[in-house]
Amino acid sequence: MNLAALFPNEDYRFAMRFERGRPEDFFAPTESGPRLFAERARWLNEAPAHYVAMLPGGEPLLEETLELLRAWPATRAVASPGGASVLASLGTPESSISLETSEFPPGSLSPSEGERAGVRGRLTIPRAAEVQAGASRSPSLLGQTPLARCIELGRKLEPDFLLLKPDAAGVFRLLAGCVCFPSSWSLEEKMGLPLDEIHGVVPGLNTQLARPISGFLAKMAPGISWLRANWGLSRSAELNNHPSRKLPRLDASVRADEVWLRVEWQSLVALPGNAGVLFGIRIEVFSLAQVKQDAAAAEGLRRALQTMPGEMAAYKGIAPARDRIATFLE
Ligand code: HEM
Could you give the CA distance from residue 93 to residue 139 in angstroms, rounded to a whole number? Predict the structure, then answer.
């Protein structure tokens, strides 16, 4: 997907648009790896509770994700400084539910697991010792807590990731994840929530798309990376726009060189062993000058800014700045 494809030749609207790709391509290492890993380590060391979480019931999703990553040559090759495969070093605890060993057929939940998945307020917050464990270079991480394994994966994978699973009523809930580069939302507030509550702050989204989204997630064919993208504008080129950082906001005084287009390239991958979903996110940041090099993208962004409903502009944090930014794009 290129920049112009983010802004089809139409007024702003929500859309369920997906391209098909290979999951191993989305999660594969890129040349940005060293820069991304350094920054991921910084946030995971500084404030892990903001960036990583694991709820009861999330562990099988993490284990199935690790199995997939080990099965794909591109991600198996993600190597530790010692040269051994990082993902191989994560090992597979005997207690985990895997594709081959699951007691539960795809689509089912044990009753207690379903109950636990529905319980809020039982968030596992990383403790310093576990973060240290996640940072260690031990040859085998067998026996580590699920949270420590989640942190370890968060340090080694370039994309952010979220793991969801349907509860006993079939409602997708967020059970685990590591998001070092959030777009002005916080993981800790979303943990355990059903997807429509996660999306509840996006004006009009659920009315239009809650059912299509959950239907899509429930029916995703495995082995495919379902690619989509969201975009936003920021007054900062930083990858990490966590609300706690209180980064500068866009307003009517903004200069063109302070405006950044923030693209979230997203991949949805089925976890058939758990009827779950692996949701990967890569952030790419463009200056307005870069956007303007693509005339179709610049015109599409300008049109989106001018046709977006006011409440959506307010949600995206661009209400006081959007007219001004639109003129920069002319
Ligand atoms: C499958 C189809 C999906 C569609 C069409 C979709 C669509 C959207 C849209 C349009 C936004 C608003 C972004 C913006 O314009 O700035 C959004 C926000 C968001 N979505 Fe989704 N989404 C999907 C799946 C998911 C999944 C699986 C998750 C996993 C938890 C998720 C988590 C979020 C979060 C955390 C936000 C930010 C909410 C906030 O600002 O607090 N989405 N989504």
Answer: 14
Tell me what pLDDT residue 2 has: 87
198: CA distance to ligand 1 center in Å? Answer: 8
Could you tell me if the CB of 230 is within 6 A of ligand 1? yes
pLDDT of residue 76: 84
Put the strands of the sheet holding 160-166 in their side by side order. Answer: 19-21, 225-234, 260-271, 276-287, 160-166, 172-178, 52-54
Q: Which atom of ligand 1 is nearest to the CA of 209?
A: 5
277 class by beta-carbon count within 10 Å (0-12 exposed, 13-18 middle, 19+ buried): buried
- What is the pTM (predicted TM-score) of this model? 0.86
Reference 187, options 169, 162, 168, 170; nearest CA is: 162
Encode 110-156 in three state secondary structure: CHHHHHHHHCCCCCECCCHHHHHHHHCCCCCCCCCCHHHHHHHHHHH
Alpha helices in the chain (DSSP H): 3-6, 23-27, 33-46, 48-51, 59-71, 73-76, 86-89, 111-118, 128-135, 146-156, 187-190, 195-198, 205-219, 288-292, 295-307, 310-315, 322-328
15-47: per-residue pLDDT in tens? 999 999 999 999 999 999 999 999 999 999 999
Ligand 1 pocket test: pick from 65, 165, 202, 228 the residue with the most ligand atoms within 8 Å of its Cβ.
Answer: 202
